[in-house]
Amino acid sequence: RFVLNYYDAIDSGSEYEIEQICASYMSDNCIWQSYHPFQDQRGGLDVARHFWVPLKTSFKRLQRRQDIFFAGRNLLDNEDSVWVVSMGHLMGLFDKDWLSIKATQKMIFLPYAEFNRIEDNKIIRTAFYFDLPHVMTQTGLNPFPHSLGVNILRPGPLTHDGLYYKDQDIISGNKTSQAIDLMIESLGNWDSPLSLEDELALGWHDNMIWWGPTGIGASYTIDRYVKQHAGPFRCAFSNRKFNGHVCRLSEGNYGGFFGRPNLSLKLINSFMGIPPTNLSADMNVIDIYRRDGEKLAENWVFIDLLGFWLQHGVDILSDSLKSSD
User: Fold this and answer.
1) Which of 56, 99, 159, 285 is surrounded by the fewest CB atoms within 10 Å?
2) Where are the beta strands (DSSP E) in 99-226?
3) By C-alpha distance, which of 162, 10, 6 is closest to 71?
4) What Å distances lie between residue 33 and 88, 114, 279, 304, CA to CA?
């Protein structure tokens, strides 16, 4: 309820009220982490000034269109912390340039996923990850012309049941956590004796949907996911290092996690049209899952691709804007 009230205040407040709203809901030491080109912020005032005020100034009549909303205790800290997860789109009228992206005077959708840690009726940590390249494509820019999957407006769950405004059965949530853990364990260090298809089948339904970020795109079924993302991804990178997650939780049929960073990877072959650099870079990711029975059925993925490629010396945001001039 606290987070829903916070969202209502953000959505209904003007750009002139946002600083006070953020300061009242977020602790003075709240750590807010996001994607390139935004730096980490501390405290509600800085979050408002650096993100929400510019966004609401540019995206008029902003509304939040949630597809998934759940809460729970972090399984990675002995369940000491409580987190609330939201995923969906922020939609508005793109009436003023944002991040040097030219306004269109049309509807615009910003896909987002957010983890908020709550303590003593304050938000004390936030991971706010969003698909900025998707905004770019809606304005006519083409930051990633070599996608193997399809770049579309990603819908919510097939079952349309992802908004949990009341507590769910704890047994169901535990099953979701177990399914996510099995999936993570099955990935291992990419050294399984199984084929990639058989490895994925341990934790995924055959008709899985992987709602990937713009630039990689979405894939449907294990077979197409292997061809359109997982296979090329494994071929492109080596020295994969899993850095762990900050938070992992589940409620009902939904669960997810985020890391800072999740992975460190060395680019040894071309990926997304970018040639090998033999450099290692960090990848910040949010994953949201829907479980169906004993296996996972859908996965919404947010990756800071702009920040990732910048570590390889490729400034996708700046280069795309220059090419449009």
Assistant:
1) 159
2) 107-119, 122-130, 204-211, 219-220
3) 162
4) 18, 10, 24, 12
Q: How far out from the chain centre does Cα 240 lie?
A: 20
Cis amide prior to 261 (ω within 30 degrees): yes
Taking alpha carbons only, the member of 238, 242, 220, 227 closest to residue 195 is 227
Quote the tokens at residue 289.
């899952």
How confident is the model at residue 180, as a pLDDT? 97
Of 152, 86, 82, residue with least CA distance to 122: 82
Residues 108 and 138: their CA atoms lie apart, in Å, by 7
**pLDDT value of position 187:** 82
Q: What share of the chain is helix, strand, coil (3-state, %, to 5)?
A: 30, 35, 35
Taking each helix axis as running N to C, give the angle between helix 18-25 and helix 2-12, from 0 to 180 degrees, rounded to the nearest 10: 170
Distance CA(269)–CA(276), nearest Å, equals 5
**Per-residue model confidence (pLDDT) at position 189:** 67
Number of Cβ atoms within 10 Å of the Cβ of 107: 12
Rounded Cα–Cα distance for residues 46 and 31 (Å):
10
Q: ω into residue 37 within 30 of 0, thus cis?
A: yes
Residue 131: the pLDDT is 98
Residues of the chain with pLDDT under 70: 189
With a CB cutoff of 8 Å and minimum separation 6, the contacts of 61 are 92, 93
| Contact call for residues 76 and 246 (beta carbons, < 8 A) | yes
